[in-house]
Amino acid sequence: MKIFSKLSCTLALLICLSAVTFAQTQLPSAEVKTLDGATINLQDFAQNGKPTIISLWATWCAPCKKELDAIAEVYEDWQADYDVEVVAISIDTRRQLAKVKPMVETKGWPFQILSDANNTLTNVLNYQTIPQTYLVDENGEIVYSHNGYLPGDEYELEDQLKALKED
Question: What is the pTM of this model?
C-alpha cells in the first residue's frame, strides 16, 4: 500500500510540475521600470506584434555583458531580417542601479534597457541564473528560453528567429 501511495504522490507531483511548466508559455504581466523611473508592463512587449528578445542581466555578470555585446553586433541585421526588438532588463538592486546607465552608455547597446530592481520577474518567470534569455513571438508566447552564455549562443538565437519567420 505504501508503494502505491508513494507512486501516486510522485505521479501527482509530476502532473503538477508539467502543468506549471506548460502554463508559462505566455509572457506574464509584470511591471518593470525604465532607467528614468517610468513603469512599463512586460505585457506591452507581448502585444507589440513582433518577435521580442528579452534578456535578463546584471552589471556584475560577465557572461551577461558578453551576450549583450554579441547581440548588439548583430542587432541591426536582425532588425532588418526579422523585425525583432531586444529588451535588456537589469536585475541589479536599487543600490547597484546607478551603475546601469553609465555602463549602457559606455557599451553603446542599441536596444531598450529596463530595470527589475524589485525582482518581480524572478518570481513570475521563475528563472534561476543569468543571463536568462527569452524569445517571445508576435503573439506574446515564449517560444524559446536559454540561460548562461557561451560565444556563439547568439547564432542559436538567430536560428530560433529564422524558425519564427518561416512559420
Answer: 0.83
